[in-house]
Amino acid sequence: QSVLTQPPSASGTPGQRVTISCSGSTSNIGNNTVNWSQQLPGTAPKLLIDGNNQRPSGVPDRFSGSKSGTSASLAISGLQSEDEADYYCAAWDDALKHYVFGTGTKVTVL
Amino acid sequence: QVRLVQSGAEVKKPGASVKVSCKASGYTLTAYYIHWVRQAPGQGLEWMGWMKPNNGDTYYAQQFRGRVTMTRDTSITTAYMDLTSLTSDDTALYYCARQGLGIWLDHWGQGTLVTV
Q: A35: distance to nearest CA of chain B, Å?
């Protein structure tokens, strides 16, 4: 079951800024780090932003993450066509003792 | 570079078991946890559990306890996930992933499709 809630979809034109939210609770986002992964069509997920809000090598700096309280956000600045993908937030949940994923957001470039 | 290469697609009958392998290269298998995650067709990601390759300790998600077993063979740097009593609800892509320095999954296998 997904305990982290994301909007099902987001869209923008090339060059626009798109923001994706991830809403959780004290037991997950509130007490633990949040990370973001990108899943391009037909491929495995790939880490985009780690729990320290750092980008792994090779991830463009137009991707950034932030967290406030029990919510987190992923921002894509200067949207590009290759950013069309599904995006997932994730965190450890102390109450469930599970690693939990967000519901996922499909980003479409118009 | 870090690579996780998984075994090929499987087709199983209901009630059968499946064992998926995940061969690690480019790093020391025993230094990082391995997690297993699955994704049903058109659905999101579902965490199954983790294994500590240095000593074999495991922790499974509640919904899989009693049906899943995660093991490893350090001599061939390979992790395994065994799932029993398969039903059609277990049809999914199964991924292994390495946990990085924090609680995040920094490298993923290519996925193994299991069809029941």
A: 6
